[in-house]
Amino acid sequence: MYKYIVKRVLLMIPTLIGAAVLVFFILRLIPGDVCELRLAGSGLYADPAEIELCRTNLGLNDPIPVQFADFVWGFFILDLGDSMWTGKPITFEIGLRFQLSLQVAFMATFVAVLISIPLGTISAIKQDTWIDYVVRIFSIAGIAIPSFWLGIMIILGLLIATQKFLGTPWMPPIEYVSPLEDPLGNMAQLIWPSVATGYRYSAVATRMTRSALLEVLREDYIRTARAKGLLEKVIINRHALKNSLLPVVTVIGIEFAFLMGGLVVTEQVFNLNGLGKLFVESVLNNDYTMTQALVMIVVAVFVFTNFVVDLFYAWLDPRIRYG
Amino acid sequence: MRRLYSKIAISAVVGAVLAIGGLGAAQAQKVKRGGVLNLVVGSKIPSYDGHVESTFGMIHPIRPFYSLLIRINPDNPQSPTDFVCDLCKGKVPTGTDGGKTYTFKIRTGVQFHDGTPLTAQDIVATYKKIIFPPKGIASSRKAFFKMVDSVSAPDDFTVVFKLKFPSGAFIPAVATPFNFVYSKKDLDTNGYTWHKKNINGTGAFRFVQHQPGSFVEGKAYERYHHIGKPYLDGFKAISAPKMALRLQAIRGDRASIEFRGFPPKARDDLVKALGDKITVQESDWNCVLLFTPNQKRKPFDDVRVRKALNLAVDRWGGSKYLSKIAIVKTVGGVVFPGHPLAATKAELVKLTGFGTDLKKNRAEARRLLKEAGVKEGFTFDFSNRGVDQPYKVVGTWLVGQWKKIGLVAKQRVQPSGPFYNTLRKTGDFDVSIDFNCQSVINPIADVTKFLGSSGSNYGHYDDPVLEKIYDRLLRAETESDQRKIMREYENRAINEMAHLGITLWWYKINPHRSYVKGWKIAPSHYLNQSLDQIWLDK
């Protein structure tokens, strides 16, 4: 098992290097640069000499191999450099957003698990009854409805409903406060995007739970358990559910990794100062250093999450052993 | 007699009612102190240095921490010529010595937020950084001060600017809202890039914190030099890139105001939802959308084709209809409409494409195209910026206008980065959307856009005649001379050479919560952002 862990950790390195090379060169294929946008982007007069000076100061006039060497070296010594847009250290900028993105990812995952496992289980047990149909409609709606649209509807719904029933429109807070500082304020902001995202996320997991459980319930050992006279509740909870969770865990793991930096539109809708919003801004601003760093972080999160999911498999299913 | 007594009695009653009403109004307008103003800002702060940055994303949250030497009158921001002292005292000086010397008397008793007293040396150091920056130090608006020869401080409370030649563009340039006054001590001790990441000003508010991507917070500065102000306890500028979110924030009272502006539909939605809880202020905007033919490409090197493009456009009709869906409205020439140097309507209609007989204009356009050998159905590439308001709206409208004279414009919409690259670097377009946006209305500086030698001109042409006219304009001393030469400039740029096509001037719509008082809309989202005159009526 330890050999497997070491092998997986070492395999992460070429993956990260490959991603680094790809993102570096792809970014430089996009026309335009951060200096143009910063100094001339708002339409005001911009002296071409000032734009050129900005480019020189940011190293954009250096030869591409020099820029690449700087980037790779910085990556290896874990110095991500400064944002080309703000001039502030990237670790500082990302650190601020990381906390929020992580919290939303956890909350959405919690919502998703809370919804998907019970609903998926009920739907499988009560297959082809009206309960099953209701759950299936609920989960298909979750897949069909974009989470950002749901987010917009939530905000509008809150505004309209509170104005109608309370006389004053209310919407969630639009600036982040840490849960340690103000737990209620933090919840008031983050519960809505977590529900909007968690619902969509749960839809996939519900369908997966249902189909995986249906498959397991048809296994011989389940028939044997029933023949032995075990209670249905015991059969489901102790025997069937655990064995059906493998694919569900995969789905939840992949979705969690996606939530870290992937909630681009949802963060815009709720004005969350997360990694997704930072990602969009960095790309739009042609902020090479920030975009490169964010891509590498997302790649690292994905690779690491997949690794953890694989290890989790081994715990869930004793038959799985890595050599 | 009875009739006379009745008249006197009625007059007395009416007078009493008016007096009571007036008193009531005065009482309703009595300033209330306290409260925190929450505003939403649609752009991200690059750095805090006003001398380098050009975005309103920096001005809205950071300007309140700084003062200027002079500024537009916050009680009369619509006036393009009403400047008042901020750190100077008395009236804004007029030029002496044939208009080549400007002497400013500086207020006494002003302190920076760190307690350092402000003197004339700070103003001199600031303007030297702006006008004569050391090598390697950026200064985005030094070109506005080409006329300045030197700036000095003969004593601790006097600043003297010496100009190379008299120029009507000097005072508006000084009033530019980006000219934050820095402490000489900070510049000498910490260098010329310190203000990119640090704030120490003399503004109405002290810097509290900046959570990048989230908000900037300031609290009232107790030693502000405008005694009795600010009225607010503080402000919070919340970053919100999406327009829909900013609108919802005002509706849900998470923010009270947004200073850039909303399109007409957004205004209507807010008013419908909140009624008298929303106040709407509207104004012409010192920003105009243009189209720029690339004169390095055929057939746009032919003045007849450029004139035809102009003649096709129904500006008067466009103003009526586009103003319902976009942030554009006023028909104007090269100068901001309403400025003393701007063309009157009678003068405007004489410009190519500004006449009111659209049929005649378009017939003339077709004739010119035929004469230039451009066939019906000629297709060209039209580069536009991927921003809805007002670029895509106006761009799509222009495509329709040119179709009316048999031209087919293939609109190529790109995100901002690639669009600027096309416009400024590669020049890979036939015709491009273009714009001329400025802060303080400074027509003599603003119209340099039309000069081939200008760094912000992308038409790829040289026009020595226009350059000569501009040189005379720059040196004209009286307003009447400036006006006369401006008409020549306009005639050359638009009528004779049709270098650029003016579409419509932008229109600023600012709906805000009615309890926000004291702020008056200015013709630019960069202006009147000190927040020192704002109070909350709640």
Indicate the topology:
The complex is a heterodimer of chains A (323) and B (538).
Chain A: H1 2-29, H2 34-40, H3 48-57, H4 64-76, H5 90-125, H6 130-144, H7 147-166, H8 183-217, H9 220-227, H10 232-262, H11 264-270, H12 275-284, H13 288-316
Helix pairs in contact in A: 1-13, 2-3, 5-6, 5-8, 5-10, 6-8, 7-8, 7-11, 8-10, 10-13, 11-12, 12-13
Chain B: H1 2-28, E1 36-41, H2 56-62, E2 70-72, E3 83-85, E4 101-105, H3 120-131, E5 148-155, E6 158-163, H4 170-174, H5 184-190, E7 205-211, E8 215-220, E9 234-239, H6 243-251, E10 257-258, H7 264-274, E11 278-293, H8 303-311, H9 315-322, E12 328-330, H10 345-348, H11 358-371, E13 378-385, H12 388-403, E14 407-414, H13 416-426, E15 431-437, H14 443-446, H15 464-475, H16 479-496, E16 501-513, E17 516-517, E18 535-536
Parallel strand pairs in B: 1-9, 1-10, 13-14, 13-15
Antiparallel strand pairs in B: 2-3, 4-6, 5-6, 7-8, 8-9, 11-15, 11-16, 12-16, 17-18
Helix pairs in contact in B: 6-7, 8-11, 15-16
In the CATH hierarchy, the architecture of the domain at 91-272 in chain A is Orthogonal Bundle
Structural class of chain B: alpha+beta
As laid out across the biggest beta sheet of chain B, the strand order is 12-16-11-15-13-14
The percent of residues in helical segments of chain B reads: 25-40%
Full CATH superfamily name of the domain at 91-272 in chain A: MetI-like
CATH architecture tag of the largest domain in chain B: 3-Layer(aba) Sandwich
CATH class of the largest domain in chain B: Alpha Beta
Q: How large a portion of the residues of chain B is in β-strands, by DSSP E?
A: 15-25%
What is the 3D form of chain B? globular
The gross shape of chain A turns out to be flat
Total DSSP E strands of chain B: 18
Major beta sheet of chain A, specifics?
none
Rg calc of chain B: 25 Å
Q: Outline the low-pLDDT stretches of chain B.
A: 2-27
Give the oligomeric state of the chains in this entry, treating copies of one chain as homo and distinct chains as hetero.
heterodimer
Tally the structural domains of chain B. 2
Number of DSSP helical runs of chain B: 16
Question: Radius of gyration of chain A over alpha carbons?
Answer: 24 Å
Record field, number of beta strands of chain A: 0
